[in-house]
Design a protein that fits this description.
The strands form 4 sheets. A 6-stranded antiparallel beta sheet has the order 4-8-9-6-5-7, with helices on both faces. Strands 1-3-2 form a 3-stranded antiparallel beta sheet. It has 16 helices and 13 strands. Strand 2 and strand 3 form a beta hairpin. It is of the alpha+beta class and 373 residues long.
Length: 373
Amino acid sequence: MKNEEYYEILAKKLDSAIQGLSKMGSDKISETWMEYLRTLVPTDLIQYMIKLPVFPAVMTIRKFTREIDKTEEKATEILEELFNNDCVMRVGSKKKKYAIHLPLLIFDVPPLSYERYPKEKAEKLARLSIKFLEEEEWYKNFEGSPETPLTRVIPVQESVPIQQNILPYEDVEKIIDDSKLLSLQKCACRMRLEYLGRRKCDYPIESCIGVNQGAKYFIERGHAKEISKDDAKALLKKLNKLGLVHTTENFRKGNHTLICSCCSCCCNLIGGITRYDNPRAVAAANYIATIMNIEECQKCEICVEKCNFDAIRMGEISPNIDQKRCMGCGVCVVNCPNQIIELKRIEREEIYRDVIELGLKVAKETDREIKLF
C-alpha cells in the first residue's frame, strides 16, 4: 500500500468522528485537509498511526504491538514519536493507552508547537488550517452542529448577584475549586494568527486554563505549566476585566478539560458569532445583562467598547442592551464603573448531562459517529 492510501484511510477515520473533516452537508474531504495531514503526520509513521482508533476509543500498547507486528519496545517508540508530533493522545499513567486525536485537536494542538517545528512545517500548517477553517467553512464543524454548540459561555462569578442561585456547572470558580490539576497554556487561536502576522489584538496569549485531564494533557506535552487555584481565579478575573469571554464545554457532569478566555477578533469559538455566519457557534450563558439604576449611568460607553457581541448601544440616557445578542458573559457588569448593569437569570439554553450525551447529539445531527471501544 502506498503512503497516499494511508493518508486517505486516516482522513476517512477522522471524517467519521465527531466534527469530521468534510464540509457539513458533504462527504468530500478537501485537498487542503489532505495536505494538512500529509504535513502533520510523518510519512514513516502514517502506516502505524492508522492502526489506532480515534478518541474516545483507545488502544493499549500491547494491542498496538500486535496490530503492527513489532516488538513492544519498538511499538512504544512509534507511539511516543506520534505523541510528540501532536498526532495522537495518551491517557493513563501506569497503563498508558493511545488514540488518534479528534479533528478538533488535530487542528488546535499543533499551533502550540509551532515554535519547535521546522519553520516551513509550522508556516504550512498555519496557512492550511486557516484556509480550511475560513474559506472552506470548517468553522461550522469546529463549533458543533447547527442546532447544538459544543461549548458555552460561562460568566465570572462576581458578575452574578449573590442572591441568585448560580448552579455549580455554571460557575467558573466552582469548576476551578473542584479541579485536581490546573494548567496555563497559550491560546491556539491567537498563536495561529500571530504566526501568520494576522493577529489584531494585544490580549495575553497565555490565557487558556487546562482542567484535570486537560491540564495533564498539556503539561505532559510541554505546552503548559501547573498553576494554583488561587492563581487561576485571579487570572480569570483579570482577563474578564480586559474584556475576554470565558467558555467551557457544554455539559454539566464529569470533568471539564478547558476554560478558554476568548476575544472576538482571534478566537474561533465566539468567532462563529462575531466573524462568521454561525449564530449557534457557542451557547449563551443562562443569564442576560440588564440595566439597573439608570440615573447612575455616566455614559462612559465602557460597556459598549467591551462587549464582544455588539449587544450594547448607548442611548440618550443609558445603554440599550439587545437581549437577542447578549450572551450573558458578564464582561459589561465587571467593567461598569458605576455598577449599573447586572446579570439576571434566564433559562434559554440546555446544558447537556455529560460529554457523551453532548457528543452523541452533535454526532447524530451531523451524521458522524462516536466509537467508545
